[in-house]
Amino acid sequence: DIQMTQSPSSLSASVGDRVTITCRASQGIRNDLGWYQQKPGKAPKRLIYAASSLQSGVPSRFSGSGSGTEFTLTISSLQPEDFATYYCLQPETWTFGQGTKVEIK
Amino acid sequence: QVQLVQSGAEVKKPGASVKVSCKASGYTFTSYDINWARQATGQGLEWMGRMNPHSGNTGYAQKFQGRVTMTRNTSISTAYMELSSLRSEDTAVYYCARGSWGDVWGQGTTVTVSS
């Protein structure tokens, strides 16, 4: 089974900071990776698919990169509405990363 | 617009079953798989299984094999997830999502298992 290891599990950052979250796959998954944002009490929302394709309507400060086994989600300038938990997802097996909670410093 | 609307919250006793519905609108229901995932309070997301609404074929996570059944009614564009032999650890929010890439999610259904 493919395992997805996401790091860090949490981080504290300030508005305007650049934030990077990493997801590692236990075996190569080409570019089959998505990134999701979840706010408390809400369903996850897709931000990125196919590792680097931005979901329509998602601000351009969000970007994804990587292929094979290592992937990153970058928020170029953190905004107040970006404080949330982020998950990576391998869509073939629907294996999620453990999540990264982005908190206000 | 494309949306998935789930049924309301449920409270069940241990040993009972629960059936959650997920009604699709704004797209051709049979064109995309439906995935189901759940999330216990303060925990991460856990995949339960998927169903192809066109064929009815299903694939379940090993953890739920024998306890979960996913079905659909194409005439009303609705998918169902039934979980049996409920225990307290099944208390969670249950989500349906469209397709392999989960581009659209239902709002979630809270299932509480308590005696």
Describe the structure.
The complex is a heterodimer of chains A (105) and B (115). Chain A has strands spanning 4-7, 10-13, 19-25, 34-38, 45-49, 53-54, 62-67, 70-75, 85-90, 95-96, 100-104. Chain A has 105 residues and is mainly β. In chain A, strands 2, 4, 5, 6, 9, 10 and 11 form a seven-stranded mixed β-sheet that branches. A four-stranded antiparallel β-sheet of chain A has the order 1-3-8-7, with no helix packed on it. Chain B is mostly beta strands and 115 residues long. Classes of the chains: A mainly beta (105), B mainly beta (115). Chain A binds chain B through residues 34, 36, 38, 42-46, 49, 55, 87, 89, 91-99, and chain B through 35, 37, 44-47, 50, 95, 97, 100-103, 105-108.
Distance between the termini of chain B: 40 Å
The structure class of chain A reads mainly beta
What spatial form of chain B do the alpha-carbon principal axes imply?
globular
Instruction: Tell me the strand percentage band of chain A.
Output: over 45%
Radius of gyration of chain A: 13 Å
- What would you call the structural class of chain B? mainly beta
Characterize the overall form of chain A: globular
User: Low-confidence runs of chain B (pLDDT<50, min 5 residues)?
Assistant: none
Largest Cβ-defined interface? A-B, 21 and 17 residues
Approximately how much helix is present in the residues of chain A?
A: under 10%
> What is the typical, i.e. mean, pLDDT of chain B?
97
Strand order of the largest sheet of chain B: 2-10-9-4-5-6
Largest sheet of chain B: 6 strands, mixed
Q: What is the CA-based Rg of chain B, rounded? A: 13 Å
Layout of SSEs?
The complex is a heterodimer of chains A (105) and B (115).
Chain A: E1 4-7, E2 10-13, E3 19-25, E4 34-38, E5 45-49, E6 53-54, E7 62-67, E8 70-75, E9 85-90, E10 95-96, E11 100-104
Parallel strand pairs in A: 2-11
Antiparallel strand pairs in A: 1-3, 3-8, 4-5, 4-9, 5-6, 7-8, 9-10, 9-11
Chain B: E1 3-6, E2 10-12, E3 18-25, E4 34-39, E5 46-51, E6 58-60, E7 68-73, E8 78-83, E9 92-98, E10 109-113
Parallel strand pairs in B: 2-10
Antiparallel strand pairs in B: 1-3, 3-8, 4-5, 4-9, 5-6, 7-8, 9-10
